[in-house]
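Q: Can someone sanity-check these two? First one:
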Amino acid sequence: MSSSVMPTPRRGGGQQPPAAVSTVGLRKSYGDRTVLDGIDLRIPAGTVFALLGPNGAGKTTTVQILSTLVSADGGQAQVAGHDVAASPDGVRAAIGVTGQFSAVDGLITGEENMLLMADLHHLSKAEGRRTAAELLERFDLTEAAKKPASTYSGGMKRRLDIAMTLVGAPRIIFLDEPTTGLDPRARHNMWQIIRELVSDGVTVFLTTQYLDEADELADRIAVLNEGKIVAEGSAEELKRLIPGGHVRLRFTDPSAYRSAASALREAARDDEALSLQIPSDGSQRELRSILDRLDTAGIEADELTVHTPDLDDVFFALTGTSTPSQIKEDVR
């Protein structure tokens, strides 16, 4: 499958929630290199959106434009109801950004990092101390608050980084590869923090090099390749774009196995394992059709499993490159 695959259609029905972030025809070039070639996005408020793409696809450039760090060459973008080009101050007041590299100052304590951020947001001393204390407790950093941040583990620094981002109570947070370099336990702790943020109504725009992270967290995922959005949808919708899905039926009774093989002639047989494999996109409609055919023939399988391609398969098929977990994002 090539990069000409069109985005999957959005689910219909009901009124869509308001968009926290939207872009139309967003374009950006550096010299003669086109980084973004007219991308359209609509991210509902209170959701997690993940942007995936190979090295140099433009993920970080997209975050930089939406967070007003660089300007677009064309198209329109709105964040929290503010036009990025016309009202950058309004955008900045509504967002928080945590980049690939921690903004934590290791020379001062965790508490001092928090209070410094409170000063930058023009909070009063009392309000700054209250906010810092609440966030340090929320992110399980109270015991370490008086210690230099240079003594923190990678996971603690990431938690402090996000706590600092939350000082200004942003409604939209851009997380650019927030779990890079963390061990599995710290990654899972970060995932829980992200879920809690969303449950509080915060919108999270996530870029990640870990496909399982997008699969675990994101309500919607977009795949960016050669400056274009080549597919968009939920993780399950994206997996259905890729051939290779199948339903596997296993039997313990050889007679039932032979009868099922006769009823499902398109199935691939494994006579030794008494199992049948039927090509399927994993949809409820196809699964019901297979079960109805078995019911009509009076056959019951002992085990039924549905196999669908994972996001690694999707990523490779759409971009023709290695998966993000095998590469590093470049500066753009």
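And here is the second, same format, sequence then tokens:
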Amino acid sequence: MITMTNGVFDARLSPLDRGLAYGDGLFETCRVRAGQVPLWALHWQRLSAGARRLGIPLDGERLERERERVLNAAQAQNGVLKLIVTRGEGGRAYQAPVNPEPSLCWQFRPGESPAWERGRTGVTLYQCQHRLGDNPALAGMKHLNRLEYVLARSEWGDDYPEGLLLDAADRVIEGTLSNVFVRLEAGWRTPALERNGVAGVMRQLLLESLAPAQGIAVSEATISLQDLMSAREWFVCNSVFGIWPVTGLAPEGGHWAVGEQSLQLQRAFESWLVSRPGVNGKGE
């Protein structure tokens, strides 16, 4: 369902929808530039992989038709596009329907947050007390069950743009809405996400394309809080705001300079964005 109020597209779910009742679904949040989604191929790859894991049948043609409708109505604006995919209605209590009819809900909000630009020069994160639990069955997916992140985000107000999440063993996992990359003495690492966390599309782009193209090797590994505190440099990233170098960690402390290689990757991503078809008028 797609509705528009005061120039903003919004989405509504039926009270009987399993996404609303049980969090039975997935979502993607995408940066829109000039009416196009530069990272759409990676968003679609993650969405379709998650749908297969959950057993939600996706109609790719329907999804693309609706996406084009929303983007055309956006009239080449910059903003954020959110897609919610649920299993739809039906089933008995937790038991899923045999032949689900998925719901697709879209939301487009025009404009860009000033925080995206401010964060480019370095941010201080808040270290959350809430610890992520282990759940390998859902690890990596961007599913609708976000209560852990809601609890973590409730720990601070507007003093910090993002929070750092650990697990019960004080292993670094991710930010509340971002992934983490850390430069240690042994090189660049990003937390392995076999037990929990969200495998972001920006994380994937860095691992598979941007970092190798810059001659920067990154491996997935376990990163302890102690490792993080001794890092040479580190940053958080997502597909909406890009790359934010981290310069501080509250409330216990921790201070880092904005790293040279963090800035190198930041520049590489911004150049990549500008070169995407559609962003400069050539079609997505």
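A (reply): Looked at the second one. The domain at 117-274 is CATH 3.20.10.10 (D-amino Acid Aminotransferase; Chain A, domain 2). The radius of gyration is 19 Å.
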